[in-house]
Amino acid sequence: MNVKIITDSACDLTREFLASLDVDVVPIMVYLEGEEYLDGLTLKPEDMLRQMREGKVFKTSQIPPNIFKEKFQQLAQIGNPCIYIAFSSGLSGTYNSALIAREEVLEEFPNFKLEIIDTKCASVGFGLVVYKAAMMAKEGKSYEEIIKNIKFNAQHMEHIFTVDDLEYLYRGGRVSKTAAFVGGILNVKPILHVEDGKLIPIDKVRGRQKAMKRMVEIVKERGVDLENQLIGINHGDDLEGANKLKNLLELELGCKDFLISCIGCAIGAHSGPGTLGVFFLNKITEN
């Protein structure tokens, strides 16, 4: 009996792609002026990002325990061993909601095999962890092998990204209002990464082209065996920018395989249109 993989929409892989991998995805809630939407279901990223460019402000909310409980109960009745791969607990309470639901479901189904893993990853970095686990599940790998792989990839996944407008990070409490204002005037583009599941600024440059070049430099500094890795790229409704970054990575570092995806609503509500990120491993084999 193959392992069933479950994840949430912060992995920024399309529902169609996840369905092709036999991965179940639970949507994160997104709100606009008090109205609730489901990430990727009742609200598409491109529509949200277009509205953000027009000045609309979206907010997000963690998936509540009752949603997870219903999902876990359905899977428990089927009987497959399951792994829920979760969005970083440093950025959302969704992981903790899943833990609460798991305890309640195990009271009803004590023999249900359900592992919940906090990846401390986000967006396509998170998506790469999910993708690799799903491929192992399709190949019939064991429960223990898949869990080991998820934890290793999550621990060694690098997230390097920039945003086009600091205003969105200000709204999310990531930068001060002054920094956002001055940055907008001077065309400053921050370079950020994820450390212990949280967003951390590591550099800033002026202009988008310089930001891309700096991102490639950091990939070179931190990555290993990059020409043989699957490299993730995300974008905030800016496929042209994503392809420019891809071309730079091919030219400068010899990268060959890419997974490119638009950011979902859960991530995009905080990073905004024009976000651009690259995701890769800093270690690809265990000692």
From TrEMBL:
Q: Which GO terms describe its molecular function?
A: lipid binding
Gene3D superfamilies xrefs: 3.30.1180.10, 3.40.50.10170
Q: Which residues form the signal peptide?
A: none
Keyword Metal-binding recorded: no
Swiss-Prot/TrEMBL keywords: Lipid-binding
Q: Which InterPro entries match?
A: DegV (IPR003797), DegV_C (IPR043168), DegV_domain_contain (IPR050270)
One Pfam family here = DegV
- In its keyword annotation, does this UniProt entry include Amino-acid biosynthesis? no
Role played: May bind long-chain fatty acids, such as palmitate, and may play a role in lipid transport or fatty acid metabolism.
Q: What's the protein called, per UniProt?
A: EDD domain protein, DegV family
Q: Which organism is it from?
A: Anaerobranca californiensis DSM 14826
